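Cross-posting from the modeling subforum.

Setting up a comparison between two proteins and wanted a second pair of eyes on the formatting. Protein 1 (sequence, then structure tokens):
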Amino acid sequence: MSALARSAASWPHVAQGAEAEVLLAALNDGVNLAVWQRSLTDNLQGFVARALASQAPLSVATSITLASENEAPDLSRLFAGLEHVPGHADFVADVQMLVAMYACLLDAECVGLRLRVLDRAMCPRWHVDKVGIRLVTTYYGPGTEWLQNDNLPRDDLGSPAADAWTSLPATGSVDCGSIALLKGESWPGDVGQGIVHRSPRPVMDESRLMLSLDAIG
């Protein structure tokens, strides 16, 4: 059985499941990756494909202040100009849901949101993030790849020395549509234990549409 095919039970630092509640595991000591395994609806898939084909500018970087933990943010202007494209409302609702859920989980009053269209690996080296907990999901294309905790020397991470480990195969990857919480080195008590991950190699002539969320402040 390949590493990619192994059950998450093989890796005690990883929690995966088909329900959103699995994301709560990211708050536990010893867990540095939690993945809500889900599939995108046909409406969402259709909208994303049409949005990418439109050549409209899709990259977004903004901060969102939550009025209250029980109120979803107003992102109705997300991808302005594509409101007429079928599935736009579904896409906005999905991003709103993820922002609200992430903010509630981390008790964050402000969330940094980035949507990026990528035609190359943004972070091709194995590395860890200097953040607390980051939410990532891919709406189109392959998802983030990750490694078992002790698969390479952490002193090499993110540096040119990590190039020697480029051929090291991923332990697992996050499927398109699934939601991942990646714990970084800035989470209390997690120094030296952040999840090791990298961007996947892009499929030829295809782009990725990736969303990331970070708690601010």
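Protein 2 (same layout):
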Amino acid sequence: MAKIAISLPDEVLEAVEKERLGRSKVLSRSEFIKIAVQQYLQTESEKSLEEQYIRGYLEQPETAEESEWLDQAAAEVFANNPWRQENQD
């Protein structure tokens, strides 16, 4: 595993210390920073995928025929849904 040295503003380090020490299982600074970086990378990856999806949809939106078919399929599924009767009582 590679080691790096980072500089943090005092207020950021204070927030890190407060968060990591306030847990039921105290994390080392390294573990805390590792988890934070992993979460950041995961969030950025999800944003990128969402942006790709939106771009793709805008470039090739569903047709009126596809939309109508989806509406009909959903109506059939919900019409035959046993929860529908349970919720009406």
